[in-house]
């Protein structure tokens, strides 16, 4: 059996603590189901996940001093079952971090990827400083993280960020087909192999998100952070002062 976890907050699928906890709970239930051999993480709407909604005054993007959001994110990495992300559109900021939870990413040409934290005046989060270099190497990851640039699906595929690039109308089917291929293998062997390959990843993400959160909390107090939020909301380049 293939588990399907779908985000339905279209069109942008912004996340909050409740959504990440709900995904983690769904993963936990599927992890306990012995008939489930792989999980597809998908979303309904224009974007796969556009990150936290920084445009709302009630939600400034802060994760809370206690790090509840990042603790929930670590739970995603603790799921023992293989995960395939079906990325139909932009995966931005924390949305990229969510896509990086998966073992594999199947994407449509309309997909876009960005770790745009520096454009907001804050430190990257969601464990991206651990997961992105692990996947595409420090040089490519540094380029994305220092510039906040958005890359297209073709470049993401060439860098290894995307494993399969397929037409939009074949995306869900291709992700399910990959999950089914994994499910055809001996389940105990798959779980053991995955545990070996990803050994220490959840612990690394836990340590890294603790550091990321501490750095973010420092930068939330800066003028640059307030300017970054305004700039993104107004769709213009930030005028940062370094203060």
Task: Please describe what this structure looks like.
By secondary structure, the protein is of the alpha/beta class. It has one domain: 2-enoyl-CoA Hydratase, Chain A, domain 1 (Alpha-Beta Complex). The protein has helices at residues 17-32, 68-77, 94-99, 117-120, 128-136, 138-147, 153-159, 171-183, 187-197, 201-219, 223-233; strands at 2-7, 38-43, 83-87, 91-92, 104-107, 112-114, 150-152, 164-165. Strands 1-2-3-5-8 form a 5-stranded parallel β-sheet, sandwiched between helices. It has a 3-stranded mixed β-sheet with strand order 4-6-7. Helix 2 links the parallel strand 2 (38-43) and strand 3. The termini are far apart. The relative contact order is 0.15.
